[in-house]
Amino acid sequence: MKPTSKALLPVFFLLTLLIAACGGGNSSTSTAPSTAHTKAPENKQVLITTIPTASIANFDSLDPAKATDFYSASAINMIYSGLVVLDDNLKVQPELAKSWDKSADGLSYTFHLKPNLKFSDGTPLTSHDVAYSIDRAFQPQLKSPTAAYYLKYIKDQEKVNNGQMKTLIGDSLITPDDNTITIKLSKPIAYFLDSLAFQCSFVVEKSLVQKYGEFTSKFTDHLSEGGGSGPFKVKSYMLNKDIDMIPNPNYFGAQPQLKEVIAPFYKDADTTRKDYLVNRLDDATIPLSNFASDKHRSDFHQQPFLTISYYAMNYNQKPFDNTKIRQAFALAINKDLITSKIWKGSYIPTNHIVPQGQYGYDPALTGPAGVKGTAGDPQKAKELFQQGLQEDGYSSASQLPPITLTYASGGVQAARDEVASMQQMWQQVLGVNVKTSDIDLNAIFNDESLGANNPLQFYAGPSWVADYPDPQDWTTLQFDKGAAQNNMNFGQNKGPDAMAQQAIQAQMEQADVIQDPNARLAAVNKIEQALVNYVAWLPIEQQTTVLLRKPCVQGAAQNAQGLIDPEDWGKVYISTDTPCTSATVSS
After folding, report:
1. What sign has the CA pseudo-torsion 264, 269, 272, 274?
2. What residues form DSSP beta bridges with 84?
3. Rounded to an integer, what distance in angstroms lies between the CA atom of residue 83 and that of residue 112?
4. Please, what's the b/e burial string for 365-390 (b: 16 or more CB within 10 A of its CB; e: otherwise)?
5. What number of other Cβ atoms are within 10 A of residue 210's Cβ?
6. Residue 52 and residue 245: Cα distance in Å, rounded?
């Protein structure tokens, strides 16, 4: 997912407020309704939540093919459906599809739809609607920022996207009857179903879309008329105020017990906590300044989130064309100290590229040069640094070219403190004075996008959020030859290790098509360790979801992406436990 600056760290706390609505607390396991809780009357089954509306005055887009941010995605997952969905443990499960068959060569998937599917207005939903929605996402007039990226390996999609073909329907999207659709691929990727769970493939109602302009997304202003097939439908959507959702009576799964979900927009994220404490909200974010005290509250919840905050060293700029110097910079950092002192325990120190909580995570992974733990190794850092200096013909650190770390704090003091702490560690351990430049986030994005011509020497990544829970999202997508995210120029440089890095890139592509999950896991773990050894990224911490949630919100479960299986909304209810908001179902 689009990288996000530490300037937006509170956003990550807010993005997970879906969890606040769903119970489960510090666990990612399902929480069934308990007999210890009494369900409140039907007119009290109202959830007032800041998912997915904190810190924004409006959604980026409620068009599944256009949305790129978490706020929009959270709402989209409640309103629409796709062929498949990720469950509480990030495993692919049927959604609109009841089953599917994969061809022996892995180049086609045939999906069989559940019977009697309908949109929220009662209109039948068929395989033709699925094909239309996926094809629409690739149409150049729509300019979807995600389809060609997440569904890259649907055969001939690039020809439609660049105008060479008019449609994929009848080509790589085949609908032999109303209940069957076959999707053909150009490459037998092992993670296709995971990527298909991303919202750009979700089904939209053709008649509503075309009524308001097929490639304009204006239909999203009229979702009270229909348009989706998820557990909820839109009752009202008022810019700068709120979105109000009610159960979709035509939903194919378990009907939500909640009678209404109201999500008010909050420009100031910290205000959510204030309103929560006076019972205006059922969930709220926790500002860093309140974390130390709030973590002892009974309504406090925290769990790992699939986001890694990292720094990158440009392989095309000295002195970071030298592997040992990169390793020295990495091992000079005490990540434990940074996460405990600066982030107050709200983050998890890590050496990982593939985060905890998803397939591909390797608990046996070490830091660079085999160093275990996340506290760094000053002595090893000094040894590697001296070796690197000698390899490059330097007699001392004073001969190094000036080093500048560029980052975007966005005014967040903790982000500044993290950089200052690392500056001090590099000075103390390596004797290197690293200058810093705190600039606008978009300026970093613009420079990064230049790839081989990226002028940034050393910069905050700043963070990567899982698009789908597959290691390809953290390996090939980031570091392969020509990958848009390969801004640090791994394998595309003139350094002495370039050929070895290119061999790793080839291994990534091979791993992407390994069909046996155990064999693929072994390959991915080996690749990740190599990337860490080369310091392709300098990971610092894995972010977590941190929030407050009223004890009256019961049921459901969440995954490490901060989303829930739409069918789990049928388990969510308001109990008579206090404190709670006093909302009643609106007329």
Report:
1. negative
2. 94
3. 9
4. bebbbebeebebbbebbbbbbbbbbe
5. 13
6. 12
pLDDT digit string, tens, across residues 568-579: 999 999 999 999
Record the pTM. Answer: 0.88
Radius of gyration (C-alpha) of the chain in whole angstroms: 24
Interacting residues of 316 by C-beta distance below 8 A, sequence separation 6+: 452, 454, 489, 493, 494
Query: Hey, do 1-55+235-299+550-587 and 307-543 end up sharing a CATH topology, with the first three levels equal?
Result: no
- The ranges of the chain with pLDDT < 70 are 1-35, 52-55, 556-557
d(CA 489, CA 313): 9
**Angle, helices 413-430/378-391, rounded to nearest 10 degrees:** 70
| DSSP 8-state symbol, 124 | B
The tokens for 195 are: 């990527």
pLDDT tens per residue, range 498-542? 999 999 999 999 999 999 999 999 999 999 999 999 999 999 999
Q: Give the integer Cα–Cα distance in Å for 160 and 137.
A: 10
Task: Name the average pLDDT for the chain.
Answer: 91
Side-chain half-sphere CA neighbours of 416 within 13 A: 8
User: What CATH architecture does domain 1-55+235-299+550-587 belong to?
Assistant: 3-Layer(aba) Sandwich (3.40)
- CATH 3.40.50.720 describes domain 58-230: no
Which residues on adjacent β-strands are paired with residue 46?
260
The angle formed by the CA atoms of residues 579, 584 and 587, to the nearest 5 degrees, is 165
Q: What are the sequence ranges of the domains in the chain?
A: 1-55+235-299+550-587, 58-230, 307-543
Is-contact 562 70, C-beta < 8 A?
Answer: yes
| Rounded Cα–Cα distance for residues 295 and 46 (Å) | 26
- 509 C-beta neighbours (distance < 10 Å), count: 15
- Three-state helix/strand/coil letters over 215-243: CCCHHHHHHHHCCCCCCEEEEEEECCCEE
3-class state of residue 259 by DSSP: coil
410 neighbors 441 (Cβ within 8 angstroms): yes
Q: ∠ CA(97), CA(167), CA(485), 5° rounding?
A: 80
Q: Do residues 264 and 252 make contact, with C-beta atoms less than 8 angstroms apart?
A: no
Q: Residues 6 or more apart from 532 whose CB is under 8 A from it?
A: 351, 352, 353, 365, 366, 367, 368
DSSP 8-state code for residue 362? -
CB 141 within 8 A of CB 215: yes
d(CA 416, CA 328): 22
The CATH homologous superfamily for domain 307-543 is Dipeptide-binding Protein; Domain 3 (3.10.105.10)
What letters, b where the CB count within 10 A reaches 16 and e where it falls short, cover 244-263? bbbbbebbbbeebbbbbbbb
